[in-house]
């Protein structure tokens, strides 16, 4: 029975952790949320592709300048 207090403390800590996790659920229509998340990812991907193209063009310009 030496662990009785420790078990009680662990239970309280676990309850607190579960309550915090429940508060982080997203609200709203899941389909709309999925679509908006997809739009955000598409925008990020487009920005990344544009940045890669700009870097590639800059690299080509530097190679032409060396010649």
How would you sum up this structure, described in words?
The protein is mostly helical and 67 residues long. The protein has a domain of 39 residues. The protein is built from two helices and no strands.
Tell me about the largest β-sheet.
none
Average pLDDT: 89
What general form does the structure show? elongated
Low-confidence stretches: none
Summarize the amount of helix as a percent range. Answer: over 70%
* Beta strands, count: 0
Taking all Cα atoms into account, the compactness measure Rg is 26 Å
The secondary-structure class comes to: mainly alpha
**Individual helix count:** 2
Give helix and strand order, one letter per element, not per position: HH
Strand content: under 5%
* CA(first)-CA(last) distance: 82 Å
Descriptive key words:
67 residues; mainly alpha; elongated
TL;DR of this structure?
Residues 1-67 are annotated as: Disordered. The protein is mostly helical and 67 residues long. It is built from two helices and no strands.
Helix and strand layout, with pairings?
Blueprint: H1 4-22, H2 30-66
């Amino acid at each position: 029975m030496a662990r009785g207090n420790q078990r009680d403390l662990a239970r309280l800590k676990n309850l607190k952790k579960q309550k915090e996790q429940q508060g982080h659920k997203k609200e709203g229509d899941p389909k709309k949320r999925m679509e908006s998340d997809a739009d955000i990812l598409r925008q990020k991907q487009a920005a990344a592709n544009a940045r890669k193209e700009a870097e590639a063009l800059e690299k080509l310009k530097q190679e032409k300048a060396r010649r």
